[in-house]
Specification:
- With 219 residues, this protein is an alpha+beta fold.
- The chain folds into two domains: 3-50; 67-218, no CATH class.
- The chain is built from four helices and eight strands.
- The protein is elongated.
- The relative contact order is 0.10.
């Protein structure tokens, strides 16, 4: 092989090796750029992430008051007034120690139910109430002014006394029209008193009073 061809061959090999090295170096540099970009994206903090998180809302402490010996019934009815926002009538108001329900008609044609949970003092509703029977709805509605809720503590105490059950307690107090009533008769209070354990030694009494708190009957 001539000296000239040898020089050309060596030059070709050197150029080839140099080209391969340059391509390898470029690929490694691009790889490092991508890795740096991915690292920056992974550690990027959005502006809203820099703000301190909102503290959790404190859970309101349980209300120690008894529904049957406090202003809780009136407070729950006031919430219904605020929610409905206009004149309405009641079909039933039922007060329990933890949950109170109101069946309300604002148009005289339909009835909506509202629930008041004592533990968080929140009013839920309205939920539609399915009406049954063929009677006129107006005959089952009364003005909220007829509900003297200040009577409830006295009615609860008297009902327990009249029931005569050992270790009895009131679990519900409701105001609605009786199923059968005389003309002109208003809504009546029904106080449910119970004692014992269901399925074991459970006993109960229904004690009824008229809208003004006068005793009517016990069953």
């Amino acid at each position: 092989m001539s000296k000239k061809r040898t020089i050309l061959l060596v030059s070709f090999i050197v150029v080839s090796v140099l080209g391969m090295w340059l391509r390898h170096s470029h690929q490694q540099a691009e790889k490092r750029k991508r890795e740096e970009l991915f690292r920056r994206l992974a550690t990027y903090t959005r502006p809203e992430q820099l703000a301190p998180p909102e503290p959790p809302k404190p859970t309101p402490p349980p209300d120690p008051r008894s529904t049957f010996d406090s202003t809780l019934p009136q407070e729950s009815l006031d919430l219904v007034r605020q929610q409905v926002g206009r004149g309405f009538k009641l079909m039933e108001a039922r007060f329990g120690d933890t949950l109170t329900t109101f069946k309300v008609s604002a148009d005289g044609e339909t009835v909506q139910q509202y629930l008041f949970a004592k533990h968080d003092k929140r009013l839920e509703g309205p939920q539609p109430v399915q009406l049954i029977g063929s009677g006129k709805l107006a005959d089952s509605l009364y003005d909220p002014a007829a509900a003297d809720l200040s009577l409830i503590p006295r009615l609860a105490r008297e009902a327990v006394e009249r029931a005569g059950l050992p270790d009895a307690q009131v679990t519900t107090v409701s105001l609605s029209y009786p199923l059968f009533r005389r003309a002109g008769e208003g809504p009546e209070w029904t106080v449910f008193v119970e004692t014992g354990e269901v399925g074991k030694d459970w006993q109960y009494k229904h004690v009824t009073f008229d809208a003004k708190g006068k005793f009517k009957s016990i069953s």
